[in-house]
Amino acid sequence: MTIRRVSARFLEATPAAGVVFGAGDFNTYSMVVVEVEDDSGHIGYGEALARRGGAMTATAVESLLAPVLVGQDPRNIEGLWVRMVGQLRPWGHVSGVVMEAVSGADTALWDLVGKIEGRSVWQLLAGAGRQQVPVYASSVYISDPDTMVREAIAQQKRGFDRLKVKIGRKPGEGGQNADLTALRAIREAVGDDLILVVDANGAYDAADAIRMGRAMEPLDIRWFEEPVFMDDLGGYEQIHRMTSIPLARGETDFGIFTMRDVIERRLIDVAQPDLGRCGGITGARHIWTLAFAHNIAFAPHTGFSGGLSQLAAIHVAAAAPSLLALEYMFIDNPCREIFQGGYPQPEEGLLRVPNGPGLGLQLDMDKIERYTVRH
Asked: What is the secondary structure of 255-286 as a DSSP string?
């Protein structure tokens, strides 16, 4: 049993409406689909995160990773992960496009092996064995307070007991005062039973994040996500020391090599790896082990990722020992709706784990072709 082909395609799709958050406006969603085929014709699919410049990521898959994988036994997933990462690790390349490409190839390997063996990825992981995973609604994006309140109430009525709200307005948009006005209005509207978390997407410096964190304390915010840029570890240390709200991060981390110091220094309370960036399913497993050892909660990020990354996150959430909740995006994202029968829908805050072979759902190849801009 050997791998005979590795290829990648870059997809883009435009939703009916974009979103506004601390990192700016976002109006187009994209993804890189990685295909790994064995010599019996089974094909595994994975996703590499591609927020910008997805053609670079697709090229990295085909030029850098394909030569490592072709001819190898796909079942040796951990060993192949080490070999893919090991090509450039001695030169410091354990992040960026390289790790995003590895993420897509690794997830495709897990999907392929599951199809070969007729087992779901969550079963291959031999983890916690959850049939359903708790999810939180994400996200109420930056807008006027009335709109944000309406969206929060709508998600509460859908049965969610956890909700993420975006903050991080620029000074010319009202800054922290406007964010606090919206948060206070949401808390008053939804009551005390709905768990609220906030995400600044690195919009602040440490001083502003501390000021914001202290102001949010009376609102019972359960975590403060990405208050500063991911490389500002000293900022995280200051914020953690000077506010009481738990800190969360992970979507901008490239797996165990960038999260290691963050977790070991206890700079966060919630680890949030994105499957399209953290090194795939194998990379997420490394992070959940380290998080579990340090008594840190685990809450996989999905965000603007496409359907394959979000689907892989369900399987990881089903297996992880210290799962808090999985992010469920309720925004319009055509790149997520690429499966026959649609992406799974939660009921009363729970998402059922697909049980089909591999990742468990069949791709709608007509949609894949429609959104492909490079193959």
From this structure: THHHHHHHHHTT--SEE--BTTTTTHHHHHHH
pLDDT at 353: 98
Cis bond leading into 309, ω under 30°? no
pLDDT digits (tens, 9 = 90+) for 158-190: 999 999 999 999 888 899 999 999 999 999 999
According to DSSP, the β-strands at 221-225 and 247-249 are parallel
For CA atoms 313, 319, 323, 328, give the dihedral sign: positive
Number of residues in the chain: 375
Tokens 């994006």 locate to 141
Q: How far apart are CA 334 and CA 63, in angstroms?
A: 28
Note whether 299 and 324 are within 8 A (CB). Answer: yes
Rounded to whole angstroms, the Cα distance separating 281 from 99 reads 12
- Determine the Cα–Cα distance for residues 120 and 312; give it in Å rounded to an integer: 11
Structure tokens at 188: 């008053």
E-strand ranges in the chain read 3-13, 19-21, 24-26, 29-38, 43-48, 132-140, 162-166, 195-199, 221-225, 247-249, 270-271, 297-298, 326-329, 350-352, 372-374
The model carries a pTM of 0.96
Per the prediction, the chain carries an average pLDDT of 95
Burial 315-340 (b: 16+ CB within 10 A, else e): bbbbbbebbbbbbbbbbebbbbebbe
CB of 40 closer than 8 Å to CB of 113: no
Q: Which single residue is written with the structure tokens 């290829």?
A: 7
Q: Are 278 and 103 in contact (CB under 8 A)?
A: yes
* Strands 297-298 vs 24-26: parallel, antiparallel or unpaired: unpaired
Amino acid symbol at 180? L
- Other CB atoms within a 10 A radius of the CB of residue 217 amount to 11
Q: 43 has which bridge partners? A: 37
